[in-house]
């Protein structure tokens, strides 16, 4: 088993085919095939199969992904041991859209200015997907907006509590009442399934016997806000994402008789014996930024 065989396997998984992997790596397709055959011989089973002419991972292939990613990550660390104190390379960060638009922009700007030799790749996904990507090794750092977490495989930092609010258009009702809600004409305007605060609110509705609700799924928080402003429904969002619109009178926070379950912003890093400098300084910047914001918010309340 050679490192290049694992690189080939990982590239096929990312590219989706032998042909695209060969183009990306600069190999012939026969070389790609021989690499996979060598891996399969060493492991003792097939890594890929074709289902209706589409390349699919086998169960063995899926099991190999996190192991290969860990091994290749370790290989990169060994190669870079001489320059282990230099902040360079690639940093892959996964974050939900809510934190990206409300918290991360100044952090990313400062990071990019301080460490121009690092290529920062930011992806947006649901909090659950971000955690999966971290554990599997596809990203180096994951941020989440989620209830309390207990994780064994990650170094975990609770950054702050995120106030979750119900919002409607400025000419909408002042109060949200589960017993009087119009489930046929009022849309619950939200993002995709898997979003933590959407899940939390849907559980809240079910607890009150509301099992069917008109739901409109939109692709971004900005689209959700604009649609709510039009007056056809309400949404449930972190306050930090609607703060400007509420203060400008474009959206209104709905009063609510019950306290919703608390949600927190989290920073996760996979547990390793050695943290790369690019990850370490990013974590430090995030922790410092949230700490400063908490101090400023406390000061403004005095």
TrEMBL record:
Organism per entry: Fictibacillus nanhaiensis
Keyword Oxidoreductase: no
CDD domains named in the record: PBP2_LTTR_substrate (cd05466)
Protein name per Swiss-Prot or TrEMBL: LysR family transcriptional regulator
HTH lysR-type domain residues: 1-58
Family: Belongs to the LysR transcriptional regulatory family.
Highest taxon listed in the record's lineage: Bacteria
The keyword Membrane appears for this protein: no
Keywords for the protein's UniProt record, in alphabetical order: DNA-binding, Transcription, Transcription regulation
Residue intervals passing through the bilayer: none
């Amino acid at each position: 088993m050679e490192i290049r065989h694992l690189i080939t396997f990982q590239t096929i998984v990312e590219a989706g085919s032998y042909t695209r992997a060969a183009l990306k790596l600069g190999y012939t397709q026969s070389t790609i095939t021989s690499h996979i055959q060598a891996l399969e011989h060493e492991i003792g089973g097939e890594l890929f199969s074709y289902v209706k002419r589409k390349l699919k991972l086998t169960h063995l292939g899926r099991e190999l992904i996190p192991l290969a990613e860990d091994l290749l990550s370790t290989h990169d660390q060994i190669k870079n041991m001489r320059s282990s104190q230099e902040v360079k390379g690639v940093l892959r960060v996964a974050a939900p859209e809510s934190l990206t638009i409300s918290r991360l922009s100044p952090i990313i700007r400062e990071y990019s200015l301080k460490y121009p030799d690092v290529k920062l790749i930011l992806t947006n996904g649901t909090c659950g997907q971000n955690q999966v990507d971290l554990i599997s090794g596809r990203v180096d750092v994951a941020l989440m907006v989620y209830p309390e977490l207990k994780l064994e495989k990650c170094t975990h930092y609770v950054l702050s509590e995120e106030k979750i609010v119900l919002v409607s258009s400025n000419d909408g009702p002042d109060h949200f009442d589960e017993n009087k809600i119009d489930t046929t004409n009022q849309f619950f305007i939200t993002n995709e399934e898997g979003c933590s605060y959407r899940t939390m609110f849907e559980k809240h509705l079910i607890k009150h016997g509301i099992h069917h609700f008109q739901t409109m799924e939109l692709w971004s928080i900005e689209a959700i806000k604009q649609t709510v402003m039009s007056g056809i429904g309400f949404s449930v969002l972190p306050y930090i994402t609607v703060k400007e619109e509420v203060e400008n009178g474009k959206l209104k926070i709905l009063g609510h008789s019950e306290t919703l379950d608390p949600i927190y912003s989290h920073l996760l890093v996979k547990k390793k014996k050695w943290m790369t400098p690019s990850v370490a300084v990013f974590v430090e910047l995030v922790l410092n930024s949230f700490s400063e914001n908490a101090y400023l918010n406390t000061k403004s309340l005095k």
